[in-house]
Amino acid sequence: MSIQAREIEYKDGDTVLAAYMAWDEAVAGPRPGVLVSHAWAGRADFEDRKAEHLAELGYVGFALDLYGCGVRGGNADENAALMQPFLDDRAMLQRRMQLALEQLSAQKEVDSSRTAAIGFCFGGLCVLDLARTGADLRGVVSFHGLLGAPGNTEGTQLSSKVLVLHGWQDPLVPPEQVMSFADEMASHCADWQLHAYGNCMHAFTNPEAEAPENGMQYDPTADHRSWDAMWVFLNEVFS
Predict the structure, then answer these.
(1) Which pTM value belongs to this model?
(2) Would residue 4 count as lying in a domain?
(3) Residue 169 resides in a domain
């Protein structure tokens, strides 16, 4: 195994975006590519390491950038300020996700006919929105993601399979929102599934999450189970 990486710059209008791509040089020929969509602070080491872990599984991992090259939040207020424009303008969010998918598909290491996307927290919402547009990819995986519908994709036929990995005690996504999401997926005639982890809050994959008073706490068991569930799902969609 020989994990390699490079940064890839691309643009949305005048906004320069910078992704981090990782792959195993020992794998011969093009292989499936997987987008990694970042949490509300922007692309950081967490997402880059996930791209590397995907490379270790034999894929190309592509940690995308929604905010702009070097744009990162340093605290909750800054993170919220960066995220909110994308929550207010889901079409912009969807456009930047599609741009990232196009960049991934264009890389010589990637089999463009076999792509998927995973995302964490805000990134989970982003990959679900990419699927909701009918984008041409095999599957998306949301880790403790927000589930609210964007309001501009009604009637779209989803081409990708959907896996949602959810902490049942997540206060940001209460049970009624989970049920609304289920109804939405049914309206899309989607191939979807949901794994709910009991006694588990938001951000359960992030070892730095330690704010249970705000509903955010790392859970090593759910972290490992959810990654294993993703691995099984990717094996299925890429088979």
Answers:
(1) 0.97
(2) no
(3) yes
